[in-house]
Amino acid sequence: MLYELARPFLFHMDAETAHELALPSFKLLHRLGLPGLPGKAIPGTRVTAMGLEFPNPVGLAAGLDKNGEFIDALAAFGFGFIEVGTVTPRPQPGNPRPRMFRIVERKAIINRLGFNSAGVERVVENVRRTRYGGILGINIGKNFDTPLERAVDDYLAGLERVYPLASYVTVNISSPNTKNLRDLQQAAALGALLAPLARARDRLARQHGRRVPLAVKIAPDLDDQALAAIANALVEFGIDAVIATNTTVSRQGVEGSLHANQAGGLSGAPLRPLATAAVRTLAAALRGRVPIIGVGGIMSAADAREKLDAGASLVQLYTGLVYRGPVLVREIVSGLAAPAVQAA
Predict the structure, then answer these.
(1) Active site members
(2) What domain range includes position 78?
(3) What is the distance between the alpha carbons of residues 74 and 55, in angstroms, rounded to a whole number?
(4) 146-202 tens-digit pLDDT
(5) Does any domain span residue 339?
(6) Facing residues of 117 across strands?
(7) Shortest CA distance to 217 belongs to which of 262, 272, 257, 176?
């Protein structure tokens, strides 16, 4: 209700300015005891994936809380898990503003943020201060000025620092807003990245006495052959999950709209069929060997069900929250649990 009242005001602002106002406001209201939020994960259909048990299958996608500043407030929406980041080893400002654009009539957003990050040390400090005790994913990336041939150094540095605090770690190789980053999805480059990361994960598991799963986040703009090659690499290197998908460079579904020609990644409702198709292709290639987290264009319980029916085990939200607000989490969790209730 509060978000519905605030949304017209927020939508009169630049998208990133509204984002910067909304999250601290949620944090303040949470501290004051925001009415209508459950304060913990909404009970739903429990899911086991990556060796973790999720209280419900609906998670927050990376990108909303890049620096882990608002974890407790966002957890009060009722998510089954939360992912923060993308986190880079060194602080960096990202691309020049303006760099976020709403396409309201299509329920879409274009962003070219470019891994704006306070840096891994600040994020570690923020996560240590949180009271959140649920499943926390930390999404890591490379700095913009790190040459691609040395990208593995940045990912290893990020993994080393966040490992003790994360429930799982996501390797983001699919943002369209860091130059050439998506080249890391190509077979040879992917193997050269995943092999040392898998070794580091195993070493850190021995060092810390617990195994933190590794996930890889991929783009929706890959053909079936590329997706099959990625599936093979995930299995070969013992990766624990794949997140499908990031934003798209396609403009299908927003043609002719204001801002449609802005550079960046497109998210929201127009991404849904492309992301779901990627989930379906991956599911066929993986045959249950690696769980899939489906993300992209989820605006309703039906959209989330579509991802699960395509082969995902879990789903994540971002742009849907911008257009629907916190109520969307409860709606989806309840909607996904409804068939089990009816069957009983």
Answers:
(1) 175
(2) 2-330
(3) 16
(4) 999 999 999 999 999 999 999 999 999 999 999 999 999 999 999 999 999 999 999
(5) no
(6) 92
(7) 176
